[in-house]
Amino acid sequence: MWGKDGRMSNAEDIPSQTADGHQDGSLAAAGSGGQIARHYRNIKEHAETYPYVWGSYILVYGGLGFWLTYRWRKLRRTEDRVRLLQEKLRKFVEAEQLTNSAAVTELSANSASLTNKPPPSADKATK
């Protein structure tokens, strides 16, 4: 359970000694797996002892997680929409440039054919 210093303490934290004075090797042999199991058991006991504290943790951090997930997904959708609009705008600009270049080519062809024709006043003078 929780001690006065704010740390979790348990009877299992103190290794037991056998009658001949040697420490019980079960904790030392267990290694990190035993520490993890002991830590999990202490957390479980604390959660059973103080369910409202853990409920508030779940509510606050769970709500924060849901909100972050919602904002992340909304950001991703917005980025996808912006990419789609940029692609449409790029295609539109390319099409407009092709149309403008075709119009310029057509105008230049018309102006070239107009320069080859004699002026209308010259036709009247020769007749």
Automatic annotation (TrEMBL):
<keyword id="KW-0472">Membrane</keyword>
<feature type="region of interest" description="Disordered">
    <location>
        <begin position="106"/>
        <end position="127"/>
    </location>
</feature>
<keyword id="KW-0812">Transmembrane</keyword>
<feature type="compositionally biased region" description="Polar residues">
    <location>
        <begin position="106"/>
        <end position="116"/>
    </location>
</feature>
<feature type="region of interest" description="Disordered">
    <location>
        <begin position="1"/>
        <end position="31"/>
    </location>
</feature>
<protein>
    <recommendedName>
        <fullName>Transmembrane protein</fullName>
    </recommendedName>
</protein>
<feature type="transmembrane region" description="Helical">
    <location>
        <begin position="52"/>
        <end position="70"/>
    </location>
</feature>
<keyword id="KW-1133">Transmembrane helix</keyword>
